[in-house]
Give the backbone structure.
Amino acid sequence: RKGSVVITGASSGLGLATAKALAETGKWHVIMACRDFLKAERAAKSAGMSKENYTIMHLDLSSLDSVWQFVENFRQSGRPLDVLVNNAAVYQPTAREPAFTAEGFELSVGTNHLGHFLLSRLLMDDLNKSDYPSKRLIIVGSITGNTNTLAGNVPPKANLGDLRGLAGGLNGLNSSAMIDGGNFDGAKAYKDSKICNMLTMQEFHRRYHEETGITFASLYPGCIATTGLFREHIPLFRSLFPPFQKYITKGFVSEEESGKRLAQVVSDPSLTKSGVYWSWNKDSASFENQLSQEASDVDKARKVWEVSEKLVGLA
Ligand code: NDP
């Protein structure tokens, strides 16, 4: 049978390119988990995906109710779950004030980390039930949350501190809207959320890989300077960033190439190792990359897991 893969945020950028790459093989049915149904339908059509290869299902990661609803709808569809790709993200580099999810968590961490955390925890049951030979749970990471790299050292740097803001509910009322308890900074909140994504992948690996055989993986797909992720940045940045990445840092990858990379992490028989953060070199060959000290801190991973569990109502 065809593999069945759920991709969050498949209505644009990396998620769409991955959906297209997998659908084109004829070996995958892609469930596009998106907050804007019409946008996703238009995106799938204009990418040339044929109807029998995809289904769109509503998911708004900035609402935990919506996450629960998605899981219920998915189960009712009767489709198996073979691979889950946590890809969606928001980035608010120019926001002066924090925005919040339905439950009142700062929006970047609430969407990118907490929404995906609940989704992944709930869908573990479904992954476990699947009889697919190579089951995978993927969380898209980023170099920007990784302070052992040049890009990861551009200020403001990611830093989760002692998690006091997260433990306090990340609501900007009786706690800070930032994980480390500091003043709000939209760019930092995004980077912090990506550290949480990479820590969560490793904690999943430690808790569940041996028992379930599921492959847990993260990746840095390259700098895809043209996606909607930068939509809220100032216009000057948006016009200069793609050529800067192309000609100066040479880290630029097209959306199509990045989609092929993530599709490899979904389906390539040679990328089954669990607990790995994949990256690609200049010749587009994959390799196991090192994470920064904070992004591989075992203690912090466990604490982020435990605090997140409380926030999303699982503990
Ligand atoms: P895009 O903005 O193009 O795509 C993000 C997707 O997330 C969109 O489909 C968006 O939906 C969706 N999304 C946002 N908020 C929600 C929500 N509340 N509920 C459901 N879906 C939501 O950005 P990219 O493709 O660049 O980003 C994809 C991933 O790649 C992210 O995890 C990002 O961190 C990562 N990444 C990107 C890099 C880059 O250079 N671009 C580099 C490294 C990592 P909608 O279409 O409705 O807005």
